[in-house]
Amino acid sequence: MTAPGLLDHLADFVRALRAAGVPVGVSEGIDAAAVLGAVDVLDRRQLREGLAAVVVKRAVYRPSYDALFDLWWPALMGEGSAGGLSPQADGPQPDVEAIRDELARLLLDGDDEALRRFARDAVTRLGQADPVPGRQSFFSYRVLRALSPDTLVSRLLDALLAGADRGGLAEQVARQTISDRIAALRTAIEEEVRRRVAEQRGRDNVARTTIRPLAEQIDFLRAQQQDLAALRRTVAPLARRLAARLAAKRRRGRSGRLDFRRTVRASLGTGGVPIVTHHRPHRPHKPELVVLCDVSGSVAGFSHFTLMLTAALREQFSRVRAFAFVDTCDEVSRFFSPGADLLDATQRLSREADVVWFDGHSDYGHAFEVFAERWPEAVGPKTSLLVLGDARTNYRSPGTVTLKGLVARSRHAYWLNPEPRRQWGAGDSAADVYSEVIEMVECRNAEQLGAFVTRLLPV
């Protein structure tokens, strides 16, 4: 590849990083081009780490970077060499047991490079689905199903322990070693399948479908079990950053009200012209926060993380009161007392809160009425009111009159909706109706949630 072609290739790589959510600006792109002249581009390890040093600013971006690097800077093209397994000579069907024996030997040896070669060959021989001349499809699950590496653990333990007593530290170390090597095998197989598919369908297509979004970009309503832990980890640092930013924002606020008496007295020295004005000290207020949160099954993940963030921002408000509802409303502030474990608090909320009145399906209108009747003092002129939910009313009364009264009494009122804006008003969604009463904000992921929270504490 010529120098201009290499730079064009790098530019495509940088664009792919941006598309995956990795913030790479113009200066990082220039630094990346300089890296090409400072390292041996034929040494993938040097190239990988050199580019990472200038374009990866946070550890959270590294998995996306590594996956894209393997697509744009592959170790080889095509099938490569069959260095790990000998070709089949007795027919088209591979001898799976012989392959598994070879895998067991490599897992015992711990040779990473040999294991990667084995993974490439295993994808070639075991990963194709109904091969057709001129068209090949590869799947990692077919390779892993044929190899079943987890079923080799007992055999590998016997070999590693070599007669040593079971149950002690030696077995724990051996089990961890085997687990790490099997995990490395899985990763190598997935990377090889991704590389093969990228050659057939194009790198950009594979990047769009296989690169996982960053934790803060995962939609709350689509988060899977493996995403929940990553999302929880984003809440605490997000709250700390926001709290620091909001506190500084209030300190930078403008001066207080005009001190008329001091200004007139000072003007006597300039012939009565108030050239210099004096103001009273600025006392930034700490508003109250009231959260009304839909905790029905359809938005459970969204409400879970917004309640956690609300509790983490407690220091920024003079008082925080949280209310949960499905088809009736209950105050759940008691679960979020200072020092309480937030995960435990949300679990207690689901078990103990009185949020179901009739059939357990969302009834916004009835929930608003119960809230206004039981806690009329909760919303006042210092209150920031926050409603969390998808606004899907199951075709029941939306209770807009009650909500309008709550909004009128509050200092600020917002509705965070985890559904895309294009779906508002579709089906049983009353989002378009509610948006005429309260400012409705699209909040589908932690990134949008963080951008919104900066608005909660005006200067």
Can you give me a brief rundown of this structure?
The protein is of the alpha/beta class. It has helices spanning 3-19, 26-38, 44-55, 62-72, 96-109, 112-126, 140-147, 153-161, 169-201, 203-210, 225-251, 260-267, 300-312, 342-352, 364-374, 400-409, 431-434, 446-453; strands spanning 288-294, 319-325, 329-331, 383-388, 412-417, 439-442. β5 (412-417), α17 and β6 (439-442) form a beta-alpha-beta unit.
Query: So, CATH architecture of the largest domain?
Result: 3-Layer(aba) Sandwich
Number of domains: 3
The share of residues in helices is 40-55%
**Biggest sheet overview:** 6 strands, mixed
Number of helices: 18
Instruction: Please report which band the strand proportion falls in: under 5%, 5-15%, 15-25%, 25-35%, 35-45% or over 45%.
Output: 5-15%
Q: How many E strands?
A: 6
Helix/strand/pairing category: alpha/beta
Question: Could you give me the name of the CATH homologous superfamily of the largest domain?
Answer: von Willebrand factor, type A domain
Model regions low in confidence, pLDDT < 50 over at least 5 residues: 81-91
CATH topology of the largest domain: Rossmann fold
CATH class of the largest domain: Alpha Beta
Q: Order of strands across the biggest sheet?
A: 3-2-1-4-5-6
Give me the strand/helix succession.
Answer: HHHHHHHHHHHHEHEEHHEHEHEH
**What is the radius of gyration computed over CA atoms, rounded to a whole number of angstroms?**
30 Å
Span of the ends, CA to CA: 55 Å
Overall geometry comes to globular
What's the mean pLDDT score? Answer: 81
